[in-house]
Amino acid sequence: MKKYTTLKPLCYAILLAGLGSSVNAQEVAYPDRPVSLIVSAAPGGTTDLAARMIAEPLSKALGQSVVVENKPGASGGIAASQVLRAKPDGYTLLLQYSGYQVITPNIDKVSWDPVKSFAPVANVLSAPQVLVVKKDLPVNNLKEFVDYAIKNPGKLNYASSGNGSLQQVATEQLNQMANIETTHVPYKGTGPALADLLGGVVDLTITTPPPLLPHIKSGALKALVVTGSQRLDSAPEVPTAAEAGYPDLQVSSWFAMYAPAGTPDAVVQKLAGEIEKIMATDEYREKAETLGATAEFMGPEALGKYTEEELVRWKKVIDTAGIKGNQ
């Protein structure tokens, strides 16, 4: 009996050590099969490009395929719902556009919570906005634009890709900051909005650089400011909003990876660590620059905090402007 009681604790210790080794082996083994990256937009847009930019090198880093699946619709809701129905094990991830993550929940009812429903992994791409006006509008900088708008209240029309879009919210933020009035003209997408801006039907828009850069370089549109902290390498002549006297006009589209809430921290940290290394490479940074974007990494903690801050910031603008979805 004495020998038995002496051996019993030792057996427990060996058993626990074995279990610990098994758990650690499982963590190290992630992933042992392909990972699905659900994208909240159709192929070809910036959200899709961001997903594919990170998916290819991440596949190599993880030793397993990261398969991009486009699930557009319901302002990001279809993709978000699919990810939240998945097991929180790191094998189903979401690549979400910031407008859907922090603006849509402030405007429309959604079936998920932008903070509590997700475990933030990493921001993979950021793109500032550019304020452009039609070429024959008699202004050449932001000061002249604001002066013109003050002298012509309600005369200027701005285009957006739709009600509740970041383009609408960003322009309304400028209206509030400059105490001016411009009229919203919603379109079904950036393409039609840009076509009417080039045709002179509307006067201005604020959107991401990629579709604007060719027209800025050709002189078909006049770029007044970039709403980021730095000038664009692809359009270095365009000043930042801060340089133009509006330091708080900071508007950026960002594209971030999330996992379902409850995903093991070890899995989240592994993904974030590999993404950080990828985004630090010259190749990734150069690809971002060609899109007029930046490889601005944020890890789980920073992304979670930023998501919460953006929700609060845009809620103030949306409530003040009385912006409604589908109006």
Descriptive report:
There is one protein chain. This protein is α/β, with parallel strands linked by helices and 327 residues long. The protein folds into two domains: 34-127 and 253-321, Bordetella uptake gene, domain 1 (D-Maltodextrin-Binding Protein, domain 2, 3-Layer(aba) Sandwich); 130-226, Periplasmic binding protein-like II (D-Maltodextrin-Binding Protein, domain 2), CATH 3.40.190.10. The protein is 45% helix and 18% strand. It contains eleven helices and ten strands. A five-stranded mixed beta sheet has the order 2-1-3-10-4, sandwiched between helices. Strands 7-6-8-5-9 form a five-stranded mixed beta sheet. β6, α6 (166-178) and β7 (183-186) form a beta-alpha-beta unit. α4 (98-107) packs across α11 (300-321) and α6 crosses α11 (300-321). The radius of gyration is 24 Å and the shape is globular. The N and C termini lie far apart (81 Å). Mean pLDDT is 89; it is low at 1-7, 10-14 and 20-27.
